[in-house]
Specification:
The chain is of the alpha/beta class. It folds into 2 domains: 142 residues, Response regulator (Rossmann fold); 101 residues, OB fold (Dihydrolipoamide Acetyltransferase, E2P) (Beta Barrel). Helix content is 30%, strand content 28%. A 5-stranded parallel β-sheet has the order 2-1-3-4-5, sandwiched between helices. Strands 10-9-8-12-11 form a 5-stranded antiparallel β-sheet, with no helix packed on it. A hairpin with a 4-residue loop joins strand 8 and strand 9. Helix 2 packs parallel to helix 3. The radius of gyration is 20 Å and the shape is elongated. The two termini are 36 Å apart.
Length: 257
């Protein structure tokens, strides 16, 4: 039985290099997808259910850490994560417990061979290695990447001619387009220039759930979840008429609803 893998790396040359080196060093490994951003990585993991995912830490749309957090939160995705990074200090701080492997860029045969050997040993049927604690790893790595860690309490937004300070708990959802992010409350809407990705790094992810690359919703105000004949989920929040689309990588958040 082949071990399967997804590769996520935003630099096409490095992505192709990693795939070629893995093919040479681990011929039995079957790469089922290679993608260039975090959202595509999460979609590929959800679609193919690979044994391994090689995730670049710094990627567009979603970082490798954010992808790993979503994988860890979904019990249906049993995927061992290998982080790829150009920054050694990230690895030193985050991987001291050796809960997961990591690969430094640029990829050398020696370092990649060591990673392959470690992964083979961990994935072997007779392995006695402890299961990967992905949630703990993501927490350590998140603390390393964002040591300040202070969560947003207010959103500064212009409403007409006035500057409003909106308490974060009053926000029903955030929704972005290419230039602006809509801040929706029960009483009014406001536009800010802060992208969804930046907001996601500053809010409490236990209370605010990302349900789409462009949408974050306050979980406490979700009124209902519906699905069409294709299984596409949409969310309705209290006090609003909109139906917010849930993209496939985030649909596990509503499995019990």
């Amino acid at each position: 039985m082949h071990i399967t893998a997804v590769i996520a790396e935003d630099e096409p040359i490095l992505r192709a290099q990693l795939r070629a080196k893995l093919a040479r060093l681990w011929p039995e490994l079957r790469v089922v997808a290679d993608v260039g951003d975090g959202e595509a990585a999460l979609e590929a993991i959800d679609q193919h259910r690979p044994d391994l995912a090689f995730l670049d830490i710094q990627m567009p749309e979603m970082t490798g850490v954010e992808v790993a957090r979503s994988v860890a939160a979904n019990p249906q995705l049993k995927c061992h994560v290998v982080f790829v990074t150009a920054f050694d200090h990230y690895a030193v701080a985050a991987f001291e417990a050796d809960a997961v492997d990591y690969v430094l860029k640029p990829y050398t045969d020696e370092r990649l061979q060591a990673a392959v050997d470690r992964l083979k040993a961990r994935l072997a049927p007779q392995s006695t290695a402890a299961p990967q604690d992905l949630l703990a790893l993501v927490a350590r790595l998140s603390a390393t990447l964002a040591p300040q860690g202070e969560q947003l309490k207010w959103i500064k937004a212009s409403v007409g001619q006035n500057l409003r300070l909106i308490p974060i708990e009053e926000v029903l959802f955030f929704q972005s387009d290419e230039k602006y992010t809509l801040v929706a409350t029960r009483e009014f809407d406001a536009l800010i220039r802060t992208p969804i990705k930046e907001l996601a790094e500053g809010i409490d992810t236990a209370k605010f759930w990302q349900i789409h690359r462009s949408t974050i919703v306050n979980a406490s105000v979700v009124e209902s979840v519906s699905r069409d004949f294709r299984g596409q989920a949409t969310v309705k929040v209290k006090g609003r008429k909109e139906n917010l689309v849930v993209s496939r990588p985030f649909s596990h958040l509503f499995k019990q609803m």
